[in-house]
């Protein structure tokens, strides 16, 4: 179902993706729009390191342009640092991180950038040490846990990568327990139901998926049917359950729920994003929900 989720995300971002490319060409030829492009690239999490590095550096090196950005310049320094590491411009990355470290001493976010720079240099021991320090302050930092897995794989130590992966998955179990407690304490807060459902969906497995669908459904009920994320969650869970059970799970109530969720989702897109209605219709059809 990760592929289905990715397809939905790609469908939703299709128009923005085309706009990103137009802005990239425009800004690259001196037509303006560099900051708009950088903001959009960041929002879409688009991996475009070369144009981001080129356009971002141009803004940072222009004192008047940098001054106009005010506090947003720090976000740009971070964006350029990451792009520079992708482009192996480690000197630029080091300079950007140095500026951020001076502005935000002791910041865990800057600490992650410093650890990434160690990774880019292949200095695995220093990177591990930096990540360990971050986890001492925040044991639930998912980004850091993912990076530790990546380091182990980069060094060819698959046994260690599996060990780190198991620890990472354990975080989801702990998160699930915490959301259970929150729901017991405040059962009418839809955000807790939604978060719990998404943790269970991520963990996977038939029982977790069935429970996740139940809590996506309770989110829909608590929000009067107005939570698009929960509607889509019901559809994703239903499709995943159907795949796992090979269609053997034919509960009438569940079948009705997935049909209603798919219908409500289509209606929601038709009203709020009509240009994407055909894409969602196609996606639901591929999931065998419409």
Automatic annotation (TrEMBL):
Residues 110-172 form the EMC2 TPR-like domain. Its main location: endoplasmic reticulum. It holds the Pfam family TPR_EMC2. SUPFAM superfamilies: TPR-like. It is a peripheral membrane protein. GO terms for cellular component: EMC complex. Keywords: Endoplasmic reticulum, Membrane, Repeat, TPR repeat. Part of the endoplasmic reticulum membrane protein complex (EMC) that enables the energy-independent insertion into endoplasmic reticulum membranes of newly synthesized membrane proteins. This is ER membrane protein complex subunit 2. It comes from Oryza barthii.
């Amino acid at each position: 179902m990760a592929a289905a989720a990715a397809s939905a995300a790609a469908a939703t971002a299709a128009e923005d993706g085309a706009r990103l490319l137009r802005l990239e060409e425009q800004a690259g030829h001196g037509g303006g729009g560099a900051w708009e492009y950088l903001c959009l690239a960041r929002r879409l999490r688009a991996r475009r390191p070369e144009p981001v590095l080129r356009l971002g550096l141009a803004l940072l090196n222009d004192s008047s342009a940098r001054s106009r950005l005010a506090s947003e310049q720090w976000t740009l320094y971070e964006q350029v640092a990451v792009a520079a590491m992708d482009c192996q411009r480690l000197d630029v990355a080091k300079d950007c991180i140095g500026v951020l470290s001076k502005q935000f001493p002791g910041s865990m976010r800057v600490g992650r950038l410093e650890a990434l720079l160690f990774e880019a240099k292949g200095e695995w021991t220093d990177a591990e040490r930096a990540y360990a320090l971050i986890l001492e302050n925040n044991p639930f930092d998912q980004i850091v846990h993912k990076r530790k897995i990546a380091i182990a794989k980069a060094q060819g130590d698959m046994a260690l990568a599996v060990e780190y992966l198991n620890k990472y998955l354990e975080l989801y179990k702990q998160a699930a327990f915490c959301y259970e407690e929150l729901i017991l304490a405040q059962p009418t807060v839809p955000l807790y139901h939604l978060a719990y459902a998404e943790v269970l969906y991520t963990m996977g497995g038939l029982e977790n998926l069935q429970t996740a669908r139940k809590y996506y459904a309770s989110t829909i009920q608590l929000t009067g049917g107005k939570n698009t994320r929960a509607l889509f969650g019901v559809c994703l869970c239903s499709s995943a359950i159907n795949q796992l059970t090979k269609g053997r799970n034919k509960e009438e109530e569940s079948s009705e729920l997935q049909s209603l969720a798919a219908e409500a989702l289509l209606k929601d897109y038709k009203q709020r994003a009509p240009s994407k209605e055909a894409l969602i219709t196609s996606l639901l059809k591929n999931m065998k929900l419409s």
